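Hi L., both proteins are below.
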Amino acid sequence: MNRYERQMILPEVGTAGQAAIHAARVLVVGVGGLGAPVLQYLVGAGVGHLTLVDGDHVSLSNLHRQTLFRETDIGQPKAEAAAATLRELNGDCTITAIAAPLDPENAKALVAQNTLVLDCADSFAASYTLSDLCHGAGVPLISASALGFAGYVAGFCGTAPSLRAVFPDLPDRAATCATAGVLGPVVGMIGAAQAQMALAVLIGQAPSPLGQLISFDLQNFRTGGFRFDTAPEPYADLDFIAASQITGSDFVIDLRDTVEAPSPVTPTAQRLSVAEFTQNTPKPSPDQRAVFACRSGLRAWNAAVHLRACWDGKISLIALGDTSKTER
C-alpha cells in the first residue's frame, strides 16, 4: 500500500500533487507551538525537504503545547530535537536543522533556497523580515500567530499582497506566549490550518490560500476571515537589519537600559528610552541612516515612527532578542 494513498485518492492531489509535495523545499521558521503541528503534518504528507530554523532550546514550560518534544529533550536545541523526531516519522523526507535564530542577515539566503516559507515564529521582526524577502522574491509565505485563545493564519506574498499590506503597523504593546499565555489546542488548531494552507499552495489548490486570512476565537468558539487580494502594497519604509549590518556612519539609538542589556548594541550607540527619545528627538545628519535597536523590535518601531514624522532619511530597526543571563 502506498504511504500517501489516502491523500492521493483525492482528485485535487493525485499523482501530480504528490509529486509536487515531494519536490517541495519548505522553510519553517520557529519550531514551537505552531511549528509542532505544521511539521508533523508536512512530514506526514511527504514534503521532500524541510529546513527548520530556531535558535531556542526546549524548556519544561514548552511541553504543554510543543508536542514534538519530550521531557528528555529539555535543554536541547529545538531545531535539532524536532529534526530527530521528524526523521523517525518519515524517512522519505530530508530534514535540515539550523539551531540559530532567523535574522535579516541569514534570512535572504534561506528564503532563496526554498519554494515555500512558513512563519511559525513568535517574533514581529521575523514576520516582517520574511514578508519583505518573500514579497521581493515572489515566494509564498504562510504566516500564523497565536496568543491566549485566539490567532490567525494567512497566505501572503507569491501572487498575493505582503504581510505589510494587511498589517502595516506593529501593535502598541508587545505580548508573547511567555508573557500573556496560550492554550495548547489553540496553537494546535492554528498550526494545523497553517499546514493545510501550505499543502494547498504546493498542490495548486483553488481557491488559493494566498490572499486569504482565517481568524480563530476559541474562547467564544468562532472563526472568521477575509480575502485581501486587492490590498494596496505599502512602501516598506522601516526595515529590519541584523546588528552586524550596522556601519560606522550610522546614527544608532539603543532603547534598552543597562539592566536589560549591560552593553549597548555598538560602543557608540546612544542609550535612550522611547520616552526620552520622543521628548528630545535627536536627529541624524541628512547623510546618515538612523538605526533603532531593542529586544523585540516594537520599541524600535515606535521610536522610528516618531522620527519619521519629522525626518525623511533612511531608518532601520534591529530586534536583538533576549540578552543571555551570562551577559547580565
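That was the first. Here is the second:
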Amino acid sequence: MDLGLSGRKAIICASSRGLGKACAAALAREGVDVVINGRDVERLEIAAKEISRTAKGAVTPVAADINTAEGRAKLISACPQADILVNNNEGPPPGAFQQWDETQWQAALDANLLAPVFMIKALIEGMKQRRFGRIVNITSAMVKAPRSPMGLSTAARSGLTAICKGLSVDAAPFNVTINNMLPERFDTDRQKQMAELAMAFKKITYEEARAEIAQSIAAKRMGDPAEFGDACAFLCSAQAGFISGQNLQLDGGSYPGLI
C-alpha cells in the first residue's frame, strides 16, 4: 500500500533508539523527510546512518533536549513546516507513591505532558493552514490500565491524552489528526531496564526476568519495535484521515477491557 507520504516532512522526538527510532525508520522508508532527535550526539548520528540505509527521504539529526524551551525551539527550527509530529519521550522510572516528591512530579509533567503539548502548540496551526497534519503521541498502556508503580508516567500521559482528545475535535475539519499509541512490552531498552529491576528484586537471572515479561503478554512474546513503527506510519498516512482522537493499544492483545 502506498501511504501517500512521499515528500512529507516529519519531526520524531526522542528517536535515536527504541520506539521513536522505529517510527522514524518506517516513515523514512515511505519517502518522508524525517528530523530525528536525541540528546546523545554519538547515538543520534549512528541512528541517522542506520535509518538512512533504507530511507527514501532525507534523515536529519538534531541534538536537543525537548524538556527545555531551547531544545524544542532548536528542533522546530529544523522543520518549521512539519506535516507529521511524533511525540515521544523517556518515561519516569517506576516507584512508590509515598516516595515521590514535588521535584519528581514536576519532572514527569515536564517530560510527558508539557514537552509534547508545546511541540503540538508550535506546529498545529501550520498543519491546519496547509490542511494536512498527523500528530501521534507515544504514551503507554498504563494510561488505560494504571498500576501504582507507574503513577508518575500515568498521571502525566493521561493529561496529554485528555487535552489531545479535545484538540482532535477542533483540528479534524482541517485534515489534521491526533492519535495516541499505547505500547506495552516492546523489546527495547526500557524492557531491558525492567528485566534488570526484576533481577534485583526477585533474585532471578536476566533470562528468567525476560521470560517472565514475555509470559505477562497475551501473545507470549515481546513486541517488535518495527511492528510499532509500521503502525505509526499508517496512522500518519493519507488513508488515516478519518481516524482521530483514538488510543491504539499495541500490547499483544493483553488489555482486558472493552473500551
